[in-house]
Structure prediction request, 173 residues.
Amino acid sequence: MDLLEIMLKRRSVRKYKDEEIPKEKLNKILQAGLLAPTSRNRKPCSFLIVDKKEVLEKLSESKQSSSKFLKNANKAIVVVANTLVSDTWIEDSSIALAFMHLMATEQYIGSCWVQIHLRKSKSNESSEDYVRKVLGIDDYFRIVGILALGVPFHEVQAHKIEDIDKEKVHYLR
Ligand SMILES: Cc1cc2nc3c(=O)[nH]c(=O)nc-3n(C[C@H](O)[C@H](O)[C@H](O)COP(=O)(O)O)c2cc1C
Prediction:
């Protein structure tokens, strides 16, 4: 697939088959995260792979409702950024998440971004505090999001190039 085709095919996939993601595919997705550019090349992000059912279930309560599907994901990649290493943790984490989301599409693996930073958990605490507690992570790590992964339950409709909002583009003269 060329890059535009991958971008058109990329959708948020929240329903997965009860199947293992092949190791080579997971490795490619992680390589994409590790290849993401970071400000001043500081590389503040680490990638925590969760596949234990009971931990996925706990993570599925990290938001009030929009993280429920994590319970049925085959894996989750939690991107944690060390704020002692870089102040651009939001940007660096977001780019890594986007790169992995695209690579997952290229590998025919379904994925969905779960926003953690700025959100509240099911138990109404900060989603970041909740995830840090579940995974035993120090406070100086910030968590922009989690990528849920699984073999797609059904085929999802690709975006169409005709539907992109060209009105958002302004040529300044
Ligand atoms: C920054 C960001 C945060 C998101 N957070 C969530 C989330 O917490 N839960 C969820 O189900 N989807 C989440 N999404 C997925 C969006 O809802 C989805 O990308 C959007 O509706 C467009 O649909 P598409 O990805 O299928 O094109 C998030 C996407 C982004 C980029």
